[in-house]
C-alpha cells in the first residue's frame, strides 16, 4: 500500500498501471504538499491508522481480464462522424491534448514510418515517468500521425525521444520536471543544421508562434507522447499543476544560423557545422526583452530579466535560454561582444544580495555557491549562514549556464529570455535519416511548395 497526498492519487494510479498492476491500496493524507504551509498533522495521521491497517490486511486488488486493444475501430454515418467518435473516446481516456487529432490509421502510420529505416518495434525509451510505457518507433509514428506531422519530420522526433532515454542524471531530471513535478514546465526543442531548410522549419519571424507545420507538429507529437506513453495529462488524473504552460502544446523552432554573427549552438557544443542536431530544454515560460540599442541597454535589459528569475532559489545550477533576435545579436556583435562576454556580463550583473533574496523567500540552489555561502549541502532549501548579508550572489551558478541562440526575423527590438530548469540535452539527427532521405525531401517540397 502507499500513503499519498490527495492530489497525487491519479498520478500514483498511472505509475501503478505502468508497473503492470491493475490497482494498489492508497491511504490519502489531506495535508498540502509543496506549498510551504505548516499545520498540525496528528489528526490526519490518527485518522489514517485504521485505513492503513485495512489496506495491509483486508484490501484486495481489482480483477480484470481485459486485454489491450491494438486496433480500435470507429464507425459513423460519414467519415467525420467516425473521426468525432475517435476524438471523444481519446479525450475520455486522456490520450489527447484537447485539440482535434488526425486518426492514426494503418495507412497514415505506414506513411509516417516511411521517414525511417528503423524497425518499427525498436524500443527508443522506457523512461517516461510515471507510466514508463515502452516507446517504439511505431509509437512515435502513431503520435506524429495524430499531431499532423509528415514522414520527413521523423528523424527529428526519433532523436528527441532518444534523448529522453538517457541514463544521465540530467536526462532523468528532464523527465522528472516534465512529468512528475507540480511546477509549470514545458519542453522546448531547438533544431540546428541543414535539416532546418530540408524540412522547412521556421527560424525567422514568429518562431514560437503558429503558422509552420514542421514546428507545430514536431512539438505537438512530443507533447502527445508525454501524455500517453508518459502518463502526463494534468489534474486530476495526471500531475497537478497550478497553471501549466502554453508550451505544453508545442514549442519547436530552428536557430537562424544565417543571421547569427557567432557560432551556432550545435557548433559551440562540438558538432560539425554541417551536422543536424536537436537540443531539448525544459522551460518555465518566456519573458520579452524589448529594448532599443545601444548595446549597453540591450545587455542591461537581459541582465535585468535574468535577475528577476523566481524559482525558489538563486545561484541555480540550471541552464537558462536567451533567444537573441538577429537585430540585437548584430548590435552586440558589432560592438565587440562575443557570447562569452555576454555570459560573463550577465553573470556579474544579474545578482541579488543575500538579504534581498531572503526577503522574497529565495534560498540557495544546488551547486558550488552553497559552500561559499556556508549553507548546509544536505538540506533541500538551505539559507546562507554568511555574516555579510550584503554579499551579492548571481542568479545563475556559472556564466556557461546561459545558453544563447539567435532566432527570429531581422529588424525589430525584441529578444526573449526563457527561464529553464535542469541542463540541456543535445543529440544527432542525421543518424536517423533513412536511405531515401532526398526522395522524401523532394516530395515534401513538391507538396508544400517551399
**Main sheet: strands, sense, barrel:** 4 strands, mixed
Task: Label the structural class.
Answer: alpha/beta
Beta strand count = 16
Mean pLDDT: 91
Query: What is the beta-strand fraction?
Result: 15-25%
Strand order of the largest sheet: 6-5-7-16
Distance separating the two termini: 57 Å
Spatial extent as radius of gyration: 24 Å
How would you sum up the global shape?
A: flat
Helical content stands at: 25-40%
Write up this protein.
- This protein has 16 helices and 16 strands.
- It has 450 residues and is an alpha/beta fold.
- Among the domains are: 2-57, no CATH class; 286-418, no CATH class.
- Strands 6-5-7-16 form a 4-stranded mixed sheet.
- Strand 1, helix 1 and strand 2 form a beta-alpha-beta unit.
- The longest helix has 16 residues, at 42-57.
- The protein starts with a strand and ends with a helix.
- 41% of the residues are buried.
- The mean pLDDT is 91.
List keywords for this structure.
4-stranded mixed beta sheet, alpha/beta, 450 residues, 15% strand
Topology:
Blueprint: E1 2-5, H1 9-18, E2 26-29, H2 42-57, H3 79-92, H4 106-113, E3 123-125, E4 135-136, H5 137-147, H6 154-163, H7 169-179, E5 186-192, H8 195-198, H9 213-228, E6 252-254, H10 265-268, E7 277-283, E8 287-290, H11 295-307, E9 313-314, E10 320-324, H12 326-334, H13 339-349, E11 351-353, H14 354-359, E12 363-364, H15 369-372, E13 392-394, E14 402-406, E15 414-418, E16 420-428, H16 437-448
Helix pairs in contact: 4-5, 5-6, 5-9, 11-13
Amino acid at each position: 500500500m502507499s500513503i499519498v497526498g490527495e492530489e497525487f492519487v491519479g498520478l500514483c494510479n498511472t505509475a501503478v498501471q505502468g508497473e503492470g498492476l491493475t490497482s494498489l491500496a492508497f491511504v490519502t493524507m489531506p495535508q498540502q504538499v509543496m506549498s510551504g504551509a505548516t499545520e498540525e498533522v496528528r489528526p490526519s495521521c490518527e485518522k489514517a491508522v485504521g485505513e492503513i491497517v485495512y489496506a495491509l490486511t483486508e484490501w484486495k486488488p481489482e480483477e480484470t481480464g481485459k486485454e489491450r486493444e491494438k486496433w480500435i475501430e470507429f464507425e459513423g454515418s460519414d467519415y467525420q462522424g467516425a473521426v468525432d467518435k475517435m476524438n471523444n473516446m481519446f479525450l475520455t481516456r486522456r490520450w489527447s491534448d484537447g485539440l482535434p487529432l488526425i486518426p492514426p490509421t494503418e495507412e497514415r502510420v505506414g506513411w509516417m514510418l516511411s521517414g525511417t529505416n528503423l524497425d518499427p518495434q525498436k524500443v527508443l525509451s522506457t523512461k517516461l515517468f510515471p507510466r514508463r510505457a515502452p516507446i517504439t518507433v511505431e509509437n512515435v509514428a502513431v503520435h506524429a500521425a495524430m499531431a499532423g506531422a509528415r514522414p520527413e519530420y521523423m528523424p527529428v522526433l526519433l532523436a528527441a525521444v532518444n534523448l529522453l532515454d538517457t541514463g544521465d542524471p540530467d536526462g532523468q531530471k528532464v523527465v522528472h520536471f516534465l512529468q512528475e513535478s507540480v511546477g509549470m514546465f514545458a519542453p522546448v526543442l531547438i533544431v540546428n543544421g541543414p535539416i532546418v531548410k530540408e524540412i522547412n522549419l521556421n527560424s525567422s519571424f514568429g518562431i514560437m508562434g503558429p503558422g509552420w507545420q514542421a514546428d507545430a507538429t514536431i512539438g505537438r507529437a512530443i507533447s502527445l507522447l508525454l501524455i500517453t506513453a508518459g502518463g502526463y495529462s494534468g489534474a486530476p488524473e495526471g500531475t497537478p499543476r497550478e497553471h501549466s504552460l502554453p508550451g505544453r502544446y508545442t514549442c519547436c523552432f530552428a536557430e537562424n544560423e544565417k543571421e547569427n554573427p557567432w557560432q551556432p549552438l550545435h557548433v559551440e557544443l562540438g558538432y560539425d557545422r554541417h551536422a543536424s542536431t536537436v537540443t531539448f530544454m525544459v522551460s518555465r515560460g518566456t519573458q520579452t526583452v524589448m529594448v532599443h540599442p545601444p548595446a549597453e541597454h540591450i545587455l542591461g535589459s537581459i541582465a535585468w530579466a535574468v535577475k528577476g528569475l523566481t524559482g525558489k532559489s538563486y545561484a541555480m545550477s540550471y541552464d537558462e535560454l536567451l533567444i537573441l533576435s538577429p537585430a540585437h545579436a548584430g548590435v552586440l556583435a558589432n560592438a565587440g561582444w562575443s557570447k562569452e562576454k555576454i555570459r560573463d556580463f550577465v553573470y556579474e550583473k544579474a545578482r541579488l544580495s543575500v538579504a534581498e533574496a531572503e526577503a522574497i523567500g529565495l534560498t540557495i540552489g544546488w551547486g558550488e555557491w552553497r559552500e561559499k555561502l556556508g549553507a548546509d549541502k544536505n538540506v533541500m532549501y538551505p539559507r546562507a549562514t554568511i555574516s555579510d548579508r550584503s554579499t551579492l550572489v548571481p542568479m545563475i551558478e556559472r556564466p556557461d549556464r546561459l545558453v544563447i541562440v539567435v532566432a527570429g526575423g531581422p529588424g525589430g527590438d525584441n529578444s526573449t529570455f526563457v527561464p529553464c530548469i535542469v541542463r540541456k540535452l543535445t543529440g544527432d539527427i542525421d543518424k536517423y535519416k533513412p536511405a531515401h532521405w532526398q526522395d522524401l525531401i523532394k516530395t515534401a517540397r513538391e507538396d508544400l511548395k517551399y
